[in-house]
Amino acid sequence: MRRIGFDNDRYIEMQSGKIRERIEKFGGKLYLEFGGKLFDDYHASRVLPGFRPDSKLNMLLALREQAEIVIVISAYDIEKNKVRGDLGITYDLDVLRLIDAFRVSGLYVGSVVLTQYASQPAAKAFRQRLKELGVKTYRHYPIEGYPNNTEKIVSQEGYGRNEYIQTSRSLVVVTAPGPGSGKMAVCLSQLYHENLRGVKAGYAKFETFPIWNLPLKHPVNVAYEAATVDLNDVNMIDPFHLEAYGETVVNYNRDIEIFPVLNAIFKQIYGASPYRSPTDMGVNMAGNCIVDDAVCRSASNQEIIRRYYHTLCAGRKGMLGEDAEDITCKAELLMRTAGISPEDRPAVAAAKEKAARTGAPAAAMQLNDGRIITGKTSSLLGASSALLLNALKTLAGIDDDVHLISPTIIEPIQKLKTEHLGNRNPRLHTDEILIALSICAATDARAARAMAALAELAGCEVHSSVILSQVDSDVFKKLGVNLTCEPVYQTKKLYHK
After folding, report:
1. Are 285 and 349 in a shared domain?
2. Do residues 189 and 156 touch, judged by C-beta distance below 8 A?
3. pLDDT > 90: what percent of the chain?
4. What is the tens place of the pLDDT at every residue in 91-124?
5. pTM (2 decimals)?
6. 202: domain CATH number?
7. Which domain covers residue 427, as residue numbers?
8. For residue range 2-61, what is the model confidence (pLDDT) as tens digits?
9. pLDDT value of position 427
């Protein structure tokens, strides 16, 4: 049983209440820049045990009568076919996915905004596709001298060139497939246009991390730095807030660096700024909903180690570019700063020891009750598949020497893979082993018990002595298992799937 450190119900209530309060402060119209993932926020659920991945979505559903969604995408990102690392799909496809997800949830999607629009061919094609799908689109253009030339920005030559976004609700949630899409610029452009129309709309920013009212070096905040190590985000004490209120709070470098520019823009639009610090702009209530700090600290320390391994593997795969060495060094520094090491992740040592003893790839899992299970490579199964079966047997109370899946079932599957489907590796992957197990469960009570234990894998920790295939990684992710790998491949091939 996972220990809980975060009160999710309290969070939904407090967060929706805070946003309502901010809407009222600005007279009934608020543009809310929504950073991070609006749903499927698994990072937050890992570092704040009790936080549900769809918490922010449910919070907005509490405001559904007031809220509409505006999705922002950069034309440059469309042109470059920018891909979401977690989903493996391009940003333009993710816009369609987000629209579907919001609509299914019961949230109103008002429009899509193409920022940095300069008639790029791919952006024009995407705009046409959205039009054919019945989705309203607007174009926002590059502004020379942005963000420093505030006089030009706040003029007919700047924001004035942008198409005014027609909105109908008091809360306009501005979100995007990923960072750098232009959410803040869209919000500020709308403030300019609303002001021209006599509407005194307001702006606020929603970011879950860093949590402003936790200490700078709190593991929850350090875990955020570890998660964004490739973006070069750095947590900092907000100097503007300290000067204005004498209060020490945490923000991150990009918001602090841009605040003087934002203040100047606010003054250009309104004659005065409504905020005295970048932290003032935020509405995040997550820090007020931590009910067990020790649990959140421990969970965040584990996340820091996981992010360290993810960074090492990304570097090994060539995904970090020219800055790979600097990024991996920073990931290690953050881990050391937190006073932890890979040895604090029990599955790591168990997987390495098993691999050294067998002379082949191995994997280990720490169950939610602390028990360690291992799996080794065999002629029939890969290490991950063996580990999965061993873990399910343990959770279901089945003896280790029991064969849940008979070799007489596995061997024909291997023959199919190698002789008919062109696979060179005959060993069964985790998805294949689960399908075989589910078939056996129809006639075997023990296999059925093992299948029933699948839900208990959520939250377990796995470490592999080699980088796993995408198939195996995806299966662990779908099961809710937290995976790390050593930054080495099983073979010396140049191409890996």
Report:
1. no
2. no
3. 83
4. 999 999 999 999 999 999 999 999 999 999 999 9
5. 0.92
6. 3.10.630.10
7. 345-497
8. 789 999 999 999 999 999 999 999 999 999 999 888 878 899 999 999 999 999 999 999
9. 85
Name the domain boundary from 289, 313, 333.
289
- Per residue, the 3-state secondary structure of the chain, as one string, reads CCCCCECHHHHHHHHHHHHHHHHHHCCCCEEEEECCCCCCCHHHHHHCCCCCCCHHHHHHHCCCCCEEEEEEEEHHHHHCCCECCCCCCEHHHHHHHHHHHHHHHCCEEEEEEEECCCCCHHHHHHHHHHHHCCCCEEECCCCCCCCCCHHHHCCCCCHHHCCCCCCCCCEEEEECCCCCCCHHHHHHHHHHHHHHCCCCCEEEEECCCCCCCCCCCCHHHHHHHHHCHHHCCCEEECHHHHHHHCCCCEEEHHHHHHHHHHHHHHHHHHCCCCCCCHHHHECCCHHHHECCHHHHHHHHHHHHHHHHHHHHHHHHCCCCHHHHHHHHHHHHHHHHHCCCCHHHCHHHHHHHHHHHHHCCCEEEEECCCCCEEEEECCCCECHHHHHHHHHHHHHHCCCCCCCCCCHHHHHHHHHHHHHHCCCCCCCECHHHHHHHHHHHCCCCHHHHHHHHHHHHHCCCEEEECCCCCHHHHHHHHHCCCEEEECCCCCCCCCCCC
